[in-house]
Amino acid sequence: MEPLKKISVAQFWQIMNDMEGRIIALEQNQPQQAFNHEEIWTAKEVASYARVSYGYLMQKLIHEPHFPQSVGTAKKNAPKKYRAGEIIRYFEARNHHSKNTQ
After folding, report:
1. Rounded mean pLDDT of 9-19?
2. CA-CA distance, 87 to 44, in Å (whole number)?
3. Of 52, 35, 36, 54, which is closest to residue 44 (Cα–Cα)?
């Protein structure tokens, strides 16, 4: 291991700024997280993926006309479950549509 060398405060901040630039570049070039499209997600997992509250998902989103149907039981109070691939495609299409209408 190399002995530590002393640097000035200005050199330290230059190193930190260089690192920040590298981190930003890495984050921007990072591929989308891989998902198992056959996986079954709970409503809470769907809300987390969509970055919305569970309440908003349950009160608004699941009632939208093109929102995927639950793959769980049809009983009224049964937990809602969704196929990950259907959820991902729904939000990709929704985001694509909203970008084109702006």
Report:
1. 80
2. 12
3. 54
